[in-house]
Amino acid sequence: MEKNQYIEFQDRVINLYIEHPEVKQIWKSLDSKRMWRSRGIDNFNSPHHMFLMGKSRVEKTQAVKRYAEQSVKQSGRTFYYDEEGSKIKIIPVVYAEIPDRFTPKEFYNNIIEGLGAIKLYGRVEVGQLKDRALYLLKKHRTEMLVLDELNYLLPYANKTKAQAMELVKGLANKAGVCLICVGTPEIEVLRTMNEQFIGRYPPRTIPRFEECDDSFISLLNKIELELGLEKPIGLADSALGYPLVLHKLSLGFIGWLVPMLQNAMDIIGVMEPDFDDFNVLNRLNGNILIEAQRNVVGDITKNDIKKILRGKTN
What we know:
Elements (H helix, E strand, L loop, with lengths): L4 H10 L6 H18 L11 E4 L6 H15 L4 E3 L5 E3 L3 E5 L6 H11 L11 H14 L4 E5 L9 H18 L2 E6 L4 H4 L3 H6 L2 E3 L8 H14 L14 H9 L3 H14 L18 H12 L4 H9 L4
Parallel strand pairs: 1-6, 1-7, 4-5, 5-6
Antiparallel strand pairs: 2-3
Helix pairs in contact: 4-5, 10-11, 10-12, 11-12
């Protein structure tokens, strides 16, 4: 059965995703880094790597995960046949997380899992796991490795941090991949541990929208376009007051703005099984948005907000 316009709208609400303007520029930069590597440029002094930073809720993880997913579609070829005639999946960009309890074994195992393989446990040496990770990166023709959640390294002693960063650097060098390290601004301490890291890992930042300015209003316009209504709600209409309210409630974080709008749609009845009238959108107002904010972020206090804006939380 074909979907009707109301179910299609519900789907657009559920799947609503908007990139920060800076994200598109970062994606272009990542494309460029992969191009240089794939063309055989083997100068390790060149900045083919990156430290991607931003406060929590600016959607860093969503940005790199989507980039990894899109890289498969854009590569043209999704598989190749090896010398034995086996069909091998091409994974241009691999996404993996630093383990929350860091050990070399868990580090390599997370990369193995990111490549779609099964983690190896039991009586297995670190060297075997490293060799397995390297083998899989080359087997799947990986050009870029994204390591998220570098914040998990911050509580450790400097010796462990240094060991972890050397493992990260060594793996990238031996595999010949671009390396993208992702975390909050606090991971800058890892990037600046020695001069080599500073030169090899230039920083990029995804900021929040600090002001309700033209860039934030442009973002709201993009949301309206993604929702695809014949008659816009007016989220970007300053005369209706939505931009100021949405900016104040979200603090300019896309990671709060989008879930708030989705929850507001749920509150006014858009997500009900019998939804069949776009006039319910007229119920949207400031009180609904305040209720949606509370549903999304909870009973957040002023002190919580201060900590978030200072970057003291993960």
